[in-house]
Structures are given as structure tokens and as C-alpha cells.
Hints:
Layout: H1 3-24, E1 34-40, E2 44-51, H2 58-61, H3 79-89, E3 93-96, E4 106-112
Antiparallel strand pairs: 1-2, 2-4, 3-4
Amino acid sequence: MTNAEATQLEIVLHNLLANALEAVAGVRADQRRIVLTLAHDVEHLTITVEDSGAGVMPAMERVLFQPFVTDKVHGMGLGLAISQSLARAHGGDLVLQPGSQLGGARFVASLPFAPASR
């Protein structure tokens, strides 16, 4: 992994975790949960970020990854758009998956492993 790729992965993680932290801020302190899960197989790394926030409104789901779309007072609506674009630029993807066990949002980034250089 190059420094540029590592920085891009850091941006994706930062955006997902920042969104999760914002989502749980409105939840009672004893109910706040964020779970970061990393998994891999031979070909892919999968990063899952789930939170116990309010989740994504159904009307937002279809436009969530478009630039400048946000329901936040102080948001610009670029974090998820940039993160999905970075994942796709590396042959992966970033999606919102239904069924968070924590009751909030569940985002999954899947990134292929780069072939080993010789």
C-alpha cells in the first residue's frame, strides 16, 4: 500500500467514524454504541461501521452518496460522497446496509487487496 492509498483509507475511516460519532451524540449516554469491524478474505478487506444512532431516513437512502446531500446543520454533504468515490477508485465500494444490530446506520466498505509487487 502506498502512502497515498493509506491516506485515502484514513479519509474513508475518518468520515465513517465522524458520522457515527455525530449519530450517537443524540442518544442517551448509556445507549451510545459504535462498532468497527474489520474482516478479510484472500481478495478483499471489509470495513463495517455500525452505530446506535437514529439511522438514515428512508428518503435520504437513495441520495446519501451524492455530493452536497446532508441532513446535518453544519455538514457539507461531502464525506460519504468522497469516501465512496475513493473506495470505487480502488476497485471497491462503500454502501449503506440495512439491518444494523445496534439500531442505527451500518456502512460497509469493501476494498480489494492490491496484488503483491515483485
